Amino acid sequence: MISYEGWILITGALVGMTCGIVGAYLILRRMAMMADAISHTVLLGIVLAFLVTQRLDGIHMLIGAALAGLLTTFLVQWFHSKGVQHDASIGVVFTSLFAIGVILISTSVGNVHLDVQHTLMGEIAFIPFNTTNLFGLEIPVATLMLVVVFVIVLGFILLLYKEWKLLAFDAGLALSLGLPVLFLHYLFMGLVSITTVASFDAVGAIMVVAMLVTPAASAYLWTERLSVMIMLSASFGALSAISGYYVAYWIDSSISGSMAMMTGVVFLLSFLFSPTHGLVAKWIRPNKKKNDEKAHA
Q1: How far is CA 262 from CA 9, 114, 123, 176, in A?
Q2: Using one digit for the tens of pLDDT, what is the confidence trace for 41-63?
Q3: Is Methyltransferase among the key words of this record (predicted)?
């Protein structure tokens, strides 16, 4: 029987691993700000899915989030193709769609457990109380959803690893080789969307940005191989979530906030001590070279 604390740790680790895997491609494709945009605009998809079904759980939430994420991606690309700067396109689209979602929550949703505070910050401490029975085991609904999304994300990454690797490093070459670049792009944005909504209950819209971007940015400093970067990013995400829980317990603070803070701590350590890009390594190499030159002089 898994304890209350155990479910929180498992859920947090799943958030970190799933976001870490997806985040590795976001960093390589220089699309970190799209993660911020989609993590906010999926709110609109969640609200619309609720208005249609009157339920806050189920596959329709993932579908609504995916459609909202694809709409965000399409609008950003469309505005950019019409001459609007890419960063400006992201800013206009995500603030507008997010604002519509907030207005709908305030005016149409009513007295249900869906509010701006919940969707922005999340509350992982409440997750073990909302369970469903699966093969005789009481499993939190949010955790089960994260397991499903993790399997989906990992499956697509393994299935399309070579295609997305080529797309990440050289989209022009991928297009010249006849790969369906646009389809692959929108499929990946769909994965980002469902990853975001699956993480909502645990860490909220704002904190999921930290999980999508920071572990992958840390992993980028340690390796130049995509496969290693993906594994490191997932590991850093899980490590940040688990250590963040204990930090929150220690200082009596927000669990999701502490998890996000620990992603920053991992990044800082990577920035200082990674063997190739770390500040310490960059400081040691010139000094070592000077010492070697003096020794041979």
Answers
A1: 14, 27, 17, 42
A2: 888 888 888 888 877 666 777 78
A3: no
